[in-house]
């Protein structure tokens, strides 16, 4: 019985797309996000990017041009930004200040925020360079 449970876990883990890989918690300004909140936002962004749709009547996810020059773990774009929220996955309306960044292949690149940035720019959340 334990073997079957382990086998099903291994099968699920090896079949998971990049968007489902484990992600770490982050802090953007004074707002902390759990790993599961980051994962949920990244997965939603991935689903929208892959289907060519957006959340509610919003423009998210949309392409992020990385004018700030973040390294994003050496990943290459195109990059897409999607709101990161403490109260569930974004589905339209005000996006708030915080974002997850994914690639077009749904690799998570990092998290960024408008909090503490000048103008309409971004600064890195913890764990993003």
UniProtKB/TrEMBL annotation:
Keywords: Disulfide bond, Endonuclease, Hydrolase, Lyase, Nuclease, Signal
CDD domains: fungal_RNase
Source taxonomy: Eukaryota, Fungi, Dikarya, Ascomycota, Pezizomycotina
Organism: Trichophyton violaceum
Superkingdom of the source species: Eukaryota
InterPro entries cross-referenced by the UniProt entry: N1-like, Ribonuclease/ribotoxin, RNase_U2
Enzyme Commission numbers on file: 4.6.1.24
Catalytic activity: [RNA] containing guanosine + H2O = an [RNA fragment]-3'-guanosine-3'-phosphate + a 5'-hydroxy-ribonucleotide-3'-[RNA fragment]
Nuclease among keywords: yes
Hydrolase as UniProt keyword: yes
Pfam family, one: Ribonuclease
Molecular function terms, GO-annotated: hydrolase activity; ribonuclease T1 activity; RNA binding
Signal peptide extent: 1-15
Name of the protein: ribonuclease T1
Family recorded in the similarity comment: Belongs to the ribonuclease N1/T1 family.
């Amino acid at each position: 019985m334990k073997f079957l449970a382990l086998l099903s876990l291994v099968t699920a883990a090896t079949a998971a797309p990049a968007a489902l890989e484990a992600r770490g918690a982050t802090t953007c300004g004074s707002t902390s996000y759990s790993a599961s909140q980051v994962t949920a936002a990244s997965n939603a962004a991935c689903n929208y990017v892959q289907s060519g749709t957006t959340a509610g009547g919003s423009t998210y996810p949309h392409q992020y041009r990385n004018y700030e020059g973040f390294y994003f773990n050496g990943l290459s774009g195109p990059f897409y930004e999607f709101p990161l929220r403490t109260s569930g996955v974004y589905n339209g309306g005000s996006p708030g200040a915080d974002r997850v960044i994914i690639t077009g292949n749904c690799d998570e690149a990092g998290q960024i925020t408008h909090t503490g940035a000048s103008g309409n720019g971004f600064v890195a959340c913890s764990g993003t360079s």
